[in-house]
Amino acid sequence: MAVLGNGSAVDIAARSPSTVMSLGGEPLGQRFLLWNFVSSSKERLEQAAEDWRQQRMKLPVGDTLEFIPMPENGR
User: Fold this and answer.
1) Residues 35, 43, 32: CA angle, nearest 5 degrees
2) Contacts of 34 (CB under 8 A, 6+ apart)
3) Chain centroid to CA 43
4) How many H helices and E strands in the chain?
5) How far apart are CA 39 and CA 41, in angstroms?
6) From first to last of its 75 residues, what are the pLDDT tens digits of the chain?
């Protein structure tokens, strides 16, 4: 992943067939991180952490073999 400033340019080269996504827009504002959750709301982050602990999150199809518990300190 690359984060570019206004007016920046980058060359992209792939060694094999690849899919590239380019995303742009205005800055999102302050973001908070808790384990592997990111949000602009601390309350939403805590809700996501609790949903994970209680295994209420929908997982990708076929991803049912192992539950990885969230670290106690959330980091």
Assistant:
1) 45
2) 45, 46, 48, 49, 74, 75
3) 17
4) 1, 2
5) 5
6) 777 888 888 888 999 999 988 888 887 889 999 998 999 999 999 999 999 999 999 888 988 888 889 888 755
